[in-house]
Structures are given as C-alpha cells and as structure tokens.
Amino acid sequence: MADKAKGFFVTGDPLIYGADVAIVITLLGILVFLTFFKKWGWLWREWLTTVDHKKIGIMYLVSSLLMLFRGGVDALLMRMQLAFPNSHFLDSQHYNEIFTTHGTIMILFMAMPFMFALFNIVVPLQLGARDVAYPFLNALSFWLFFFGAMLFNLSFVVGGSPDAGWLSYPPLSELAGSPGPGQNFYIWGIQISGIGSLATGINFLVTILKMRAPGMKLMKMPLFSWSVLASCITIIFAFPVLTVTLALLFVDRFFGAHIFTATGGGNPMMYVNLIWMWGHPEVYIVVLPAFGIYSEVVSTFSKKKIFGYKSMVFSMMIISVLSYFTWVHHFFTMGAGADVNTFFAITTMAIGIPTGVKVFNWLFTMFRGRISMTQPMLWTLAFIPCFVVGGATGVMLAVAPADYQYHNSYFLIAHFHQVLIGGVVFGYLAGLYYWWPKMFGFKLNDRLGKWAFWTWNIGFYVCFMPQYALGFMGMTRRVYTYGWDMGWAPYNLVSTGGAFLMGIGFVFQVWQILYSIKNGERDLTGDPWNGRTLEWSIPSPAPLYNFAHIPKVRSDDAWWDMKEHKHGAASEKENKEFEPIHMPKNSGIPFFMAACWFVAGFGLTFEWVWVGIAGLAGVAICLLARSFQRKTDYYIPVDEIKRTEASLGRVV
Ligand code: HEM
Ligand SMILES: [Cu+2]
Predict the structure, then answer these.
(1) Does the pLDDT at position 139 exceed 70?
(2) Contacts with 204 (C-beta within 8 Å, 6 or more apart), sequence order
(3) Other beta carbons within 10 Å of 336
(4) Pfam families from the entry (predicted)?
(5) CB of 100 shorter than 6 A to ligand 1
(6) Atom of ligand 1 nearest to the CA of 111
(7) What is the pLDDT of residues 548-597, one digit of tens each?
(8) Which of 504, 395, 515, 387 is nearest to 453 (CA)?
(9) Mutate to test the pocket of ligand 1, among 74, 81, 102 (most ligand atoms within 8 A of CB)
(10) Would you give the DSSP letter of residue 134?
(11) Which residue minimizes the CA distance to atom 36 of ligand 1?
C-alpha cells in the first residue's frame, strides 16, 4: 500500500511537498470560506452554471492569471537554476519537467484562456449583440479548458509531470522514452482543453458572422472583432490537427502501435510535421487578437480613426492564411533539403510584410493625434519596438542556412519570448487595462500600474537581451547546467535578475488589482476613455442583457459617430418601447460533462481502463440529458429591464 502510494504521489522533493501543503491548505480554505459565508448556492447559481458570456470571460481571466503565476514561478525556478554555473538547485529531471510545464502552461493555459477571456467579454458587446451564438457551448468550452488545465496541473503532485518539452517530440514522448503517466497527463490535459478551444473558435466565428447589430457590415466591424475572426478561422483549421496528433501519440503509447517510432516502421518526423502544422498557426492564433487590441487602443487614445482600416483587415487575413505555410521553419536542420527549406524561408519572411503594414498603420494613426498616455496606451507603445526587434530576429532565424547556427540555441529562446511577451502578453495586458472598467465598473490604479509597467519592461530587456548573446556564444536551450569555463555566467546572472524584475512587475499588478477593488475610481459613464466602439455605449459593468435596445449602426466607429451626430443610443432619451428580452437559461450540464471528461482523462492517464470508460459514459449521459432538456430559454420581462436600466442611471 505504502509502495503504491509512493508510485502515485510524487515524493522526494521539498518543492513538491510544499506544493502538496499549499494545495491542501488552499482547498480547505476555499471550502471553509464557502461554507462559513454560505456561498455554495451563490457559487453554483452565479458562476458554475452561468451561460453569460461576460461571466464566462471573467472565469477565463481569473484562471489565466493563476496560470500566469504558475508558469511564472516555473520560469523563475529555471532562471534561478541557470543563474550560476554548476548549480544544484534543481536536478536535470526536475529541470526537464519544469521547462515542459512552463511552455505548455504559458501557451495553452495562460495565453489561450486570456485571449478567450477578452473574446468573451468584448466581442458580443462590440457587435451590439446580446450573447454569443451558442451560449451553452460557450460554457462547455470554458469548463473543458478548466478541467483540462486542472488535469495537466495535477501531474505536479500526482504521478509526475511530463518532461519531453512543450511539443513532446517522439521518440522521447513514446512509452520507451517516457514510461510514467506524465506524458499521458500531457496528452489528455491538452486534448480536453483543445476540444474546448475548437468549440470556442466555431462559436465566435458564427457569432461574428451572424450576430452583428443591424447595419454593421463586415467592413464596418471594429478591428478587434476582425482580429478575433482571423484568429477563429485559424483555430478551426489548426486545432483538429492537434487533436489527431495527440490521439495518434496516445495510440502509440496505449496500444503499442509504432506510428511515430522508427524501430517499428513508423516515422517520428511525421509527428514533428503534424505538431508544427498546429504549433505554428497557434502562435498567430494568440498574436492576432493582440493586434486587434493595439488597433482599438491606438485609435481611442490618439482620438483618431485608425489609419488604413482596410489594409489592417487584409493584413490580418493574409497572416492567418500564410501562417499555414511556414511550419517547416521549426526544423530546417532536420534534412528536408535546400528547395523545401527555401520555400519555407520565403513564406516565413513574407509574413513580415503584412506585419510591417500594421506597424506603420499604428504609427500613422498616432501621427498628429492627441495622444493620452493611459495604461493601455503605455503597453501599446512598449509593444511596438519590442515586437519590431522580435520580428527582425525572427527574420534572422528564417534564413535557413543561418538557422543551422541558431537552431535550438538561446538566441531562439530570446526571440520567441520577445514576440510572445512583447507581442502577446503586452497586448493582452493592454486589453485588460482597456476593458477592465467595462468588466468591473471601476478603473485600475494608475500609479501602481506605472510601477508594474516599468518593472515588467525594464525586466524584459534585462532578462532577454543577454540571451541573444548567449545564443551566439553557443548556449543551447534546455541545458540545465553549465561550467565556469563556458564564459556564460555573467550573462545568465543578469538575465535571472531581469526575470525577477518581471516577477516584481506581476506582484505590482496583483497589488494594483487588490488596491483598486477597494479604492478604484468608479466608472459611472460607461464610457471612461471616450471610446469609439459599441461596448462603450452601455453602462459598466454591462447588464445581463447587454443592450436594452439593439443599436443601429450607420458607420465604422459606430459609437463615436452616434456621439458626434447625437443619433441612435447617444440620444436614446426618447422613450422607445422596451420589449421582453430572450435569454438562455443557466445549466449545470457543461460543468458536469467537463468533470466527466476529467475523470475519463484521469483514468486513461493511469491506464485504469474502467475509470476511463466510466468517465466517457458520464459524458454520454450528459449529452443525452442535454438533448432531453426542453426549457432552455426564458424572457426578461419589461419591468425588470426598466428597473435595471433605471438603477444604472439610464433614463427610461
Ligand atoms: C516571466 C517571463 C518568462 C521567463 C523568465 C521565461 C523563461 C523561460 C526559460 C528559462 C525557459 C527554458 C529555456 C530552456 O532551458 O530551454 C523557457 C522556455 C519556454 N517559454 Fe518561457 N519565460 C517567460 C515567459 C513566457 C511566456 C509568456 C511564454 C508564452 C506565452 C513562454 C513560453 C515558453 C515556451 C514555449 C518555452 C519552451 C519550452 C520548451 O523548451 O519545451 N514563456 N522560458
Ligand atoms: Cu513557426
């Protein structure tokens, strides 16, 4: 029994015991809190069963910030290990596990949900819609992401973490290379949340195509919504590839097939091709919405229409298509030959063109604008030089012959963090600050925000600039220690210092949020930034039904136009009649169905076939239960709308 438990729970490391204790204390704390303050019913009715896109967005947001913390702690542990030569802070096995979980968590469980948070909170409001196209599916997507992420995180304390890198190349990720359950956690954690991501892609594609307010032609749609459309199209083509790839890896591991093992007649390069056919578009999936955010922020805070709206739209669409023709640049060195490498080098460099167009458009928008240096604008301004340098080093990597030198070196690490942090994270943070008043009805404190901004930014350059040099000096990625004789020590020490500065930046942000919850300036207008798009035409936070009257759109920058010409919602003092509003009903099924997936994934991870089957049976039962549900919607009566609008300070 004791032996069995030993194989089940991860043992032997003080860090992990620390985590065990922390998990137990946190869980107990939550249970006691909910029971003591009698919050169970509230939690169930208001959150776990909600189908409201705004609340789902907030749940995504909270989860992704928690995952940013976990991924960030992983990053700091790695940087601590690398700060000094011959260090024994972590052993090699632990280091491998940490870079694997760090990469996986940051991309799939931090960036993706952060992005979905903003999709959910903003898109329906920007379109003048009352909800997404499929609210029930939306809740299901969230819970699939959530339980997938929990399954993945569980590997830290139960069974052992995966250690084959964030893309898990075979043969290392095959049974012979990774015999424990860690790799199965990877497969099922990502598989379950990935299905949720695919559903979100479909949901928002349909929402954008079908739910726009009357008059909002596609070419009048705000650029953030356009960027979401581009991202969703990319999701819809990319994620099925991921699903199949992981399923095939599972078949290899579970049934002893040899699809990806050379010894049995399979081919590991097949896996590498497949995973990057998803993996490359994936980085554009996360960066495209950031481009949309920058566009909204730049035009709002320069008080100008965005420069080159049409070229923005086309460049985003071109990027989303081109992103499928570059995947081989991740393995130029693996023997595809000069002609194939040349093709993929050129397509990769070609992406620089539409991206450059966008950068110039942002600059031209700011040119002669009345710029106000708000927090969203600061992050946007910091993004531009950062992304330009990251893009330039990307073009360097795309030179196929030169990549034989850079490949898998620290130069690459510096490059992709520069675009992922400078492009994606800065973008989402800009979006967070921009839409925060819309989500919660108050602004985030400026002074603490500036501290966070500067520590993050200075920390970023201190951390990652030395890594370019380290790459040229021959330091490769995924090394866990090195000797004094390499001459890498000073650069690594500086880099670690920068990483900690970024950590302090994150602490400032947490402090900023907590401080502002108590002392934040309330937004009573609903339009604190003097915005241009429809989400600013309604009160903050938005009422359950978003728009009491569906707005009519006459031009791009719809809300700006209404304010200028005093028509539509801006002059809605006229007593238009209210009509009952059709809404979807809450449901517990998404939560239970995803929980059953969790059980199934857990069973399959440990190869407890019966647990797996029980979980899948649960999923089937939930599907059946849903198909027998008849009353899935209701109407909000007119008096209730009147009361809500009046309480929000709207004239009715
Ligand atoms: C707080 C800032 C961050 C620091 C200090 C940091 C640090 C690191 C370090 C030290 C490694 C391992 C390098 C190696 O030994 O191979 C790494 C890998 C990685 N990081 Fe980060 N990171 C940060 C943020 C991010 C973010 C925001 C993302 C994505 C959105 C990200 C994605 C990745 C990926 C995909 C890998 C590759 C993992 C692998 O080799 O399998 N990181 N990072
Ligand atoms: Cu790529």
Answers:
(1) yes
(2) 119, 123, 132, 133, 228, 229, 232
(3) 16
(4) COX1
(5) yes
(6) 30
(7) 999 999 888 899 988 888 765 555 544 578 899 999 999 999 999 999 99
(8) 504
(9) 102
(10) -
(11) 103
Token pair of 585 as six digits = 């009903």
With 0-12 / 13-18 / 19 or more C-beta atoms within 10 angstroms meaning exposed / middle / buried, residue 215 is middle
Whole-number CA gyration radius for the chain: 25
| H-run or E-run covering 266 | none
Q: What's the 413 CA to ligand 1 centre distance in angstroms?
A: 7
pLDDT in tens, 64-77: 999 999 999 999 99
Cβ proximity of 154 and 236 under 8 Å: no
The answer, yes or no, to whether any atom of ligand 1 lies below 6 A from the CB of 478, is yes
> What are the φ/ψ torsions at residue 388 (nearest 5 degrees)?
-65, -45
Ligand nearest to the CA of 344: 2
Dump pLDDT digits (tens) for 353-365. Answer: 999 999 999 999 9
Residues 6 or more apart in contact with residue 87 via CB below 8 angstroms:
81, 481
What is the number of the ligand closest to the CA of 427? 1
Percentage of the chain lying above the pLDDT 90 cut: 85
Distance of CA 103 from the midpoint of ligand 1 (Å): 6
95, 106, 161, 429, best to mutate for ligand 1 pocket (most atoms within 8 Å of CB): 106
Give the distance (Å) from ligand 2 centre to CA of residue 372. Answer: 35
Q: What number is the average pLDDT over the span 629-649?
A: 90
Bridge partners of residue 633, in order along the sequence: 584
- Mutational pocket test of ligand 1: of 82, 93, 99, 330, the residue with most ligand atoms within 8 Å of the beta carbon: 99
pLDDT number for residue 651? 63
CA of 316 to the centre of ligand 2 (A): 16
Q: Give dist(CA 196, CA 141) in Å, integer.
A: 4
Q: Which residue has a Cα nearest atom 1 of ligand 1?
A: 72
Residue 497 beta carbon below 6 angstroms from any ligand 1 atom: no
Question: Is the pLDDT confidence value at 16 over 60?
Answer: yes
pLDDT of residue 1: 54
285-315 pLDDT, tens digit each:
999 999 999 999 999 999 999 999 999 999 9
Residue 449 near residue 510, CB atoms below 8 Å = no
3-state secondary structure of 592: helix
Question: What is the pLDDT, as a whole number, of residue 568?
Answer: 57
Q: Does 463 contact ligand 1 (Cβ within 6 A)?
A: yes
Flag whether the pTM goes above 0.85: yes
Report pLDDT for 573: 47
Which ligand is in closest contact with the Cα of 281?
2
**8-11 LR contacts (CB < 8 Å, sep 24+):** 8/158, 8/159, 9/157, 9/158, 10/156, 10/157, 10/158, 10/159, 10/160, 10/161
Residue of the nearest CA to atom 20 in ligand 1? 103
Mean pLDDT of the chain: 93
Written as six digits, the tokens of 588 are 């517990």
Whether 115 is in the pocket of ligand 1, judged by its Cβ within 6 Å, is no
